[in-house]
Design the sequence.
């Protein structure tokens, strides 16, 4: 039972982070999304987009992301892993 609950929680995290990426990058196609795709692979991932991602993820998951952590986020996978560890 615990495993199912944890798995469901992880799936929810992935779904919500993916939604946030599509909100921040409205021109991003489903087929272009990749958890490992790096910041420099996104045409419009600049400091403003980074701030939007951080703010939206903090609000969605009710967590705080420090400046030290924020500078290390360069992929959707980085955000997902952080949320999984700090939720």
Sequence:
């Amino acid at each position: 039972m615990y495993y199912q609950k944890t798995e469901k929680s992880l799936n929810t995290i992935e779904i919500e982070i993916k939604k946030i990426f599509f909100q921040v990058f409205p021109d991003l196609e489903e087929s272009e999304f990749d958890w490992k795709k790096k910041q420099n692979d996104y045409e419009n991932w600049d400091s403003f987009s980074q701030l939007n991602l951080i703010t939206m993820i903090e609000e969605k998951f009710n967590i705080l992301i420090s400046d030290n952590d924020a500078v290390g986020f360069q992929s959707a996978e980085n955000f997902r892993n952080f949320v999984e560890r700090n939720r």
About this structure: The mean pLDDT is 91.
